[in-house]
Structure formats: structure tokens, C-alpha cells
Amino acid sequence: MSLSPEMIQLAQDSKAWPFQEARALQKRLEKSGNDKGYVLFETGYGPSGLPHIGTFGEVVRTTMVRQAFQRLSDTPTKLIAFSDDMDGLRKVPTNLPNQDMLAEYIGMPLTKVPDPFGTHESFAHHNNARLCAFLDGFGFDYEFKSATKAYVSGEMDKTLLKMLTVYDRIMKVILPTLGPERQATYSPFLPICPRRGTVLQVPIVDRDLGSGTVTYRDEETGRLVEVPVTGGHCKMQWKADWAMRWVGLGVDYEMAGKDLIESVKLSSAITRILGAVPPEGFSYELFLDENGEKISKSRGNGLTMEDWLKYGTPESLSLYMFQSPRKAKKLFFDVIPKTVDDYITHLAKYSDQDEQQKLANPVWHVHNGNPPEQKLPVTFALLLNLVSATNAHDKKTLWGYISNYAEGSSPEKLPLLDRLVGYALVYYDNFVKPHKNYRLPTEKEGRALENLARELEKLEDHLPASDYQNVVFAVGNAQGYENLRDWFGTLYEILLGQKQGPRMGSFIALYGRQKTIDFIRKSLTGQ
Hints:
Radius of gyration: 29 Å
Structural class: mainly alpha
Helix content: 40-55%
CATH architecture of the largest domain: 3-Layer(aba) Sandwich
CATH topology of the largest domain: Rossmann fold
Number of strands: 12
Low-confidence stretches: none
Number of domains: 3
Number of helices: 24
Oligomer: single chain
């Protein structure tokens, strides 16, 4: 990409967090140099559990920083999605089938654990395929890399041998962070047992720098066993493994969750011992489930990527990842409609903004600077309430209302809205309809509703939504509602069977004035 001075200056001035990260990376490279010919971004994945939405979040956020960097520099970039699939299976995730079978493979590298779903060569291969399929579906530009292949192929041998020479210095960094019992057994090198194939966490009793081997005592046989540290005969312990990856691959940027801050510090210290500069990156906050608990791959709580995409657009999911990455956010089904509407709002503003404002608009980062030009006549929340009022079960019914409300609109002209109509039908059936709780109006509420129906009868069809909204306000004031939020709450509970709802003027304009009048009068009798 040929970058104009104007484009570079706009990127330098942007306050959007991906540009802030990109500028920090640029300063790191200017200081430390870069002889690879490209800038390497990395994301890590631990395939001990099924890929979850936090995994996707790390990839999409890293991609956003990469996109921002590409507006600052002509240097080519790469993104590696690295799977730590040589890690030993420590416990059986509770959300998997064939639990008893998996329990027999505790301690084995994940690429040696059978696939409990029976579709791939191993458990790791299954999870890696799931991850890649999802990333491919989003169109990410990345290279997948397997830890097992990196170790066994010899790609990491040079760095492993170097780590063997600075073994004592690595131990001095790690041991003070461990308890006495763990200190007694800790080694940065984890031998792969020649007899059983398990990943061993055993003390190293001898090292031979000349032959590049370590020796440990087999706990079952009592014999000393010597294994090479190269060629996949050893795996590095977590924090040392991370540093090995940074040095061996030449990683320039990698972000991580807030729970890994201490790991980042220790891995950075080991990286410096190896004579390299740690990558740039920042710590993002973790996602929480609706109970405020950390989302876990093994527990399977919280939303999955598939869950979100069943009820909301891929673009809305990317937007959710863009928003406030350093702020802990609850991630459950109720956030989907709001995020979808946030995306619609940002998209509508984009075409009217100047270039600097566009760089700060989230949709620039969601679409790599090329968002589609679509302004939608209705919100996702309004669609949900339209489904509620009409009891619609198909797109055709909803489009009848939409095309009547916004003349000339159609699924062909507004493909994004057509997708939202489909999402609204599914979301309503699964999350709104089961929790509806209609109630009859009180005597005062009944008078207010009848007055609203009469006032609407005085108006014409196809008026602006604001005209209908003004009537709703006026009726509420006339009925003595001191807080108009109580009046709107009354409308939502009686008409829609829910605590919250749409802007009533917009709903009336979309649903139709006469249909709304009929709707109100039916509600007065409990229909």
C-alpha cells in the first residue's frame, strides 16, 4: 500500500485505541530495528477447550491494530494464530462428550489425545479446525501455526539450544514466583516421556550443552533418562514457552488478557535474557458471564461465537470487541440487540464524517477502512418489537410493514436489514417471547390508553415518527404522569408484555397508525 503523507498524519493524530497501539509498535521498531522484512503480529490459542468468543476477540483486536499499523507504515505485516497444541491435557473440560475416554489421556500432548467428537486426528486437530473455520469465515488474513509442528520440525531448535545455555538465568527469574513445593520440581524444560508419551513435569538432574540434552529420573523405574531438548523431545514450560515463541518467530506484537500480566512480565524477562526485545502489546480486560464470573473454555459458560452469530451479525460481534477493550464487560445474550443497533448507528454516521472522524468511528476498524454505505430506516430493537406486536413468523410479513413505512425499501436494496429481519425472528422466539408477561391495565391506565387511541384517530397515516411521539407525550402529561418513564413503562408492559421497549413514535409509524389503535383497544380487554 502506498501511503500518502496526509493519510499517515491522520493516522498519527487519531485517538482510536488501535492507532495508539500501532504508534507504540512503530516506536518499538524504530528503537530495536527489524531485519525480518515484515512486522509479525501473533495471537495465541490453547486448544485444551473448544474455541470461545474470547479467542476470537484477541484475533479481531490484533487485526485492528495491524490494520491501523498499515496506515502508518509500508512495511509488510503478517499475523500468526499460534496453537499451543503440544501442551499436556491437564483436566477434562466438562462441556465435552466421552469424558471417561478423555480421562485416560491426562498428561498427553493435546495432539495425541483422541478427538472426543470422532471427526479429526486428535482433540487438538478438532479444536484447531474449529478455530480456523471460524477465522476463515470472518475473512481474517492469518497463518495458522501448530506448536507441535514447530517443535518437531526443528523450527524452534536454535532457540531451544540457546535457552539451554541460559538455563540457570531462566531459573532465577521463575523460581522466586513459585512456592517451595513447586520450586523443588520446576524446570523450564518438560521432557516428553519416551515410554508413555506424556508431558512430564519433573526436576532436571543434569544438562549437557555439548549434546543439547537434559536428564531426569523416571519416577516409575528410578532410571536416569537423557533426552534432547530439540526435535519435539521436550516442550517448554508455559512462560518460557511464550518467550521461546517470541524469540524463535521474531514476534513484534501480541496482546494478552489482564490475568496474564505477570506472565507477560516473566516471559519478557526471559526474552531479554535471550538477547531479544519483547513484543509490543497491551493487556485487555476479560469477558464476564451474566453473573459476573470469568468466561472459561472448560466450563463453557458465557456466549460462544456460534451463539452470537445465530442472533446477531458478524459485524456487531467485531464492534463489541472494539468497544472499551480495557474495560471488563458482561458477555451474554442481552448485549446482542444493543450492539447490533450500535453498529447501525455508527454505520449511518460514517458517510457524513470527515476523514479524522472516520478513523475514530468503530466501523472503520470493523471493515478495515471500507464500510458499506447503508442507512437503515429501522433499528434492530424496533424490529424485535414489531415481531412482538405482529406475532410474525417469516420475513415476508415483516418486510410488508417495513416497505410500507420506508417507501422503496426491499431486501434487495437493503441486504443488511434483511439479515437483521432474520436475526430478529430467531432472537424473539428464543429470548423475548418466553419471558413476556402481559398484564391488564388499571382503571387509570385504561383511561390513558383509550385517550391515546382517540388522539391517534385524529391523526393521518404516514406521518413522521416524531408527530406520533408528541401525541404519546401529550397523553401521558394529560393523564397526570409525573414521570413519563412510568407512562412508557405502562405501554410496554400492557402492549408488549415487557419492561422495556421502543421509542413509541417510531413503533407507531412502523406498525401503522390504525393497527396501533386496534392493538391498544384489544389490550384493554386482555386480548
